């Protein structure tokens, strides 16, 4: 019997000798062996798919790093206060990147992914919540720092005007 595996270009061929009963111990071992091979092939396909995604992610990370470097080189101190929309996008992007990095780290750190218990789910949710709150607080601090810088520059301008009026 031959059947094509869905989503792949390979065939699985199962040969059951006519002399063997379907209910014999050898037939059961053979069936379990074939089943295990099929599971390993599915795992291999998932790993290859993951490698392709990681390669695309690696290229994406490098592009973002290059864009970040270019933005750092071309940052204009005068227009810093007008970039709040870009900062919000940056905050969201940073949060997503941290979540992805954490997920990848946990997958690589876990020796047997199937052995994770359901009790680790609340820990993951709590970790995600903490990351989100950290991102929100970081944004608020950034906003306050921007306001402080703006007020200090206004103060400096007012002091200059005062000096000019006194002179």
TrEMBL record:
* Coiled-coil residue spans: 134-161
Q: Name one Pfam family in it.
A: Suppressor_APC
Spell out the InterPro entries in the cross-references.
SAPC2_1/2 (IPR026828)
Keyword Coiled coil recorded:
yes
Question: Which keywords label this protein?
Answer: Coiled coil
What is the name listed in the Swiss-Prot or TrEMBL entry for this protein?
Answer: Suppressor APC domain-containing protein 1
């Amino acid at each position: 019997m031959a059947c094509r595996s869905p989503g792949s270009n390979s065939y699985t061929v199962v040969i059951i000798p006519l002399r063997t009963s379907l209910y014999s111990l050898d037939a059961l071992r053979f069936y379990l062996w074939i089943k295990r091979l099929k599971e390993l092939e599915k795992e291999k396909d998932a790993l290859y798919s993951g490698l392709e995604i990681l390669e695309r992610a690696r290229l994406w990370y490098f592009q973002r790093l290059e864009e970040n470097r270019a933005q750092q080189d071309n940052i204009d101190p005068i227009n810093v206060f007008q970039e709040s929309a870009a900062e919000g996008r940056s905050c969201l992007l940073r949060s997503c990147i941290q979540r992805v990095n954490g997920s990848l780290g946990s997958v690589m750190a876990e020796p047997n992914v199937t052995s994770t218990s359901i009790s680790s789910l609340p820990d993951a949710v709590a970790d995600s919540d903490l990351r989100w709150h950290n991102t929100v607080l970081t944004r608020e601090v950034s906003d306050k720092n921007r306001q402080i810088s703006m007020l200090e520059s206004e103060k400096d301008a007012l002091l200059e005007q005062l000096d000019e009026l006194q002179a």
